[in-house]
Design goal:
The chain is mainly β and 254 residues long. The chain has 4 helices and 21 strands. The chain has helices at 66-72, 131-137, 156-165, 175-178, and strands at 2-5, 10-14, 23-28, 32-38, 42-47, 53-57, 62-64, 79-81, 85-89, 95-99, 113-115, 120-122, 149-150, 153-154, 183-185, 196-200, 206-212, 217-222, 224-230, 234-237, 242-252. The strands form 6 sheets. A 6-stranded antiparallel barrel has the order 16-17-18-19-20-21. Helix 2 (131-137) crosses helix 3. The radius of gyration is 18 Å and the shape is globular.
Length: 254
């Protein structure tokens, strides 16, 4: 078994071993993973933090020993950048952009200096549920990007996963997987800010998720990270004055 860590700003994680293949997720700076299959130009990997699998270009990560992987993936020592956009200085004094959620605790191993150092948070330090909305608002207006996980492009489940992760809680990557977490609530009125609402398509498959706010509002990634109304029918788009998503269930995760 081989191991790796992402040493660039963001690396696409693809469904197949090709630059033309669908991007299913992204690997942020400092995130570590197991290499399940190694080819000449591509590797199939499993991320340490959520076990999500996909293909990454071999030029977009560096190989590490098992002992290093265990240190970098240890939830007791992982620290994140909490700034929407930050910088890291490499050993050759060149700079790279990093985004909120990047694993800055890997910087010292990579011989980098992440800036500012004060913008970090231990992953196991679970913050109050009320803090979820404050974190979510940091992503407001970030453009939608299928498979995205940053303030320059994010999808609905990448958004909810990252918001929870930055507050010390683990969620699966996809909306349908996240729907398996927590307890079902019968009515919106029973929910608290930070609970998740899930939405399905015509075939009954869960395809969308958002974070419930107070007073029947919801923040979610649809075109961009935006705030809309939430009712028992679903999401009511305030700009288009119509329902954009059909409500399937509400889950209390914490």
């Amino acid at each position: 078994m081989k191991y790796g860590v992402c040493h660039i700003t963001i690396a696409p994680l693809r469904f197949e071993a090709s630059d033309k293949a669908e991007m299913t997720s992204q690997v942020l700076y400092g995130e570590s993973f197991k290499v399940l299959e190694l080819r000449k130009s591509w590797s199939r990997i499993r991320l340490a933090h959520d076990s999500y699998e996909g293909w990454i270009d071999n030029k977009q990560y560096i190989e590490v020993k098992k002992e290093v992987y265990q240190i970098l993936s240890d939830k007791k020592s992982i620290e994140f950048s909490l700034d929407p956009i930050g910088m890291t200085t490499h050993a050759d004094l060149t700079l790279s952009t990093i985004f909120i959620g990047s694993a800055t605790s890997s910087a010292s191993f990579l011989k980098d200096v992440a800036q500012p150092k004060s913008g970090s948070q231990e992953s196991l330090k679970r913050l109050p549920k009320s803090n979820l909305i404050d974190t979510a608002l940091l992503f407001l207006n970030a453009p939608y990007l299928w498979g995205g996980r940053s303030t320059v492009g994010i999808d609905c489940s990448g958004f909810t996963q990252l918001v929870y992760r930055l507050n010390g809680y683990d969620l699966s990557r996809d909306a349908s997987q996240q729907a398996e977490h927590g307890d079902i609530l019968s009515f919106i009125e029973e929910s608290d800010p930070g609970d998740l609402a899930f939405f399905d398509n015509a075939e009954g498959k869960i395809t969308h998720v958002g974070i419930i706010m107070k007073d029947n509002y919801i923040i979610h990634a649809h075109g961009k990270v935006r705030i809309d109304r939430l009712d028992q029918s679903g999401i009511f788009n305030l700009e288009q004055q119509t329902h954009s998503h059909k409500l399937r269930m509400i889950k209390q995760i914490l």
